[in-house]
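TICKET: design request
STATUS: open
ATTACHED STRUCTURE:
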């Protein structure tokens, strides 16, 4: 299977098509970079591969379909998914790599008979494993992926069992500034807002008003706010997706906003 959270970069050599029945997800260290490992796996002389690679920034690439056999752990190749990590023995995984690992493990558990537990035996065990666990039978790489990463496996497992929910956006901070009251037509009042403020409210009894919207340390955004007649209370909110103006009272007049050049 192909993991939807990975960039698909199939290799043409160094794997066996079909025949994989994963019960382990085996963690490895690259002893190098993601780009270097990608190049090495494409070299027929290397005779090695893995299903996935995870960069230090959390990017995930997939070289081999999980139904196929990657060449990463010898005796365990036909019953495992191999995951390589950018870095060197003795280093910990970065927070981004840990998060990517947890998501991959959760997906692998859902689609393959890989239990969400730590594997403690290369033959009788199953679950989240590491290369050195298999000893000589798994290739004799006793420093792969290294003690610091082995110590992080329980955290990967914990987060796979309980994925992080995205945090809801913080509510807008409302600034009611008395300097914005009852301006005359065409008046312009620069307003410097604190960086935590995403909304400003003002009241005006005239049909046209202008203010200058500016977060401290950022470029100012002059605005023209207008309506047909009558007094209005107006909220102006600015964020990543632009600027929004909302009339607060129940008046009958439409409120419009335009960015001034």
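STATUS: resolved
RESOLUTION: sequence designed for all positions
ATTACHED SEQUENCE:
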């Amino acid at each position: 299977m192909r993991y939807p959270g990975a960039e698909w970069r199939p290799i043409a050599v160094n794997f066996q098509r079909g025949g994989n029945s994963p019960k382990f997800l085996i963690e490895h260290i690259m002893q190098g970079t993601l780009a270097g490992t990608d190049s090495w796996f494409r070299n027929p002389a290397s005779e090695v591969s893995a299903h996935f690679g995870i960069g230090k920034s959390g990017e995930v690439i997939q070289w081999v379909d999980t139904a196929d056999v990657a060449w990463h752990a010898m005796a365990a190749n036909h019953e495992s998914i191999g995951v390589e990590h950018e870095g060197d023995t003795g280093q910990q995984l970065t927070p981004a790599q840990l998060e990517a690992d947890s998501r991959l493990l959760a997906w692998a558990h859902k689609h393959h008979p890989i239990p969400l537990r730590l594997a403690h035996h290369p033959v009788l065990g199953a679950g989240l494993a590491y290369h050195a666990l298999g000893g000589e039978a798994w290739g004799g790489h006793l420093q792969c992926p290294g003690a610091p990463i082995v110590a992080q496996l329980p955290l990967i497992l914990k987060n796979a069992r309980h994925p992080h929910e995205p945090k809801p956006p913080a509510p807008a901070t409302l600034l009611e500034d008395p300097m914005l009251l009852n301006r005359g037509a065409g008046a312009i009042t620069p307003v410097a807002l604190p960086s935590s403020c995403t909304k400003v409210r003002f009241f005006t009894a005239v049909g046209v008003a202008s203010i200058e919207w500016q977060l401290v340390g950022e470029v100012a955004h002059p605005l023209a706010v207008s309506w047909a007649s009558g007094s209005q209370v107006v909220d102006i909110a600015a964020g990543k997706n632009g600027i929004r103006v909302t009339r607060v009272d129940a008046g009958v007049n439409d409120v419009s906003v335009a960015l001034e050049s």
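CLOSING REMARK: The first helix runs from residue 34 to 41. The two ends are 53 Å apart (CA to CA).
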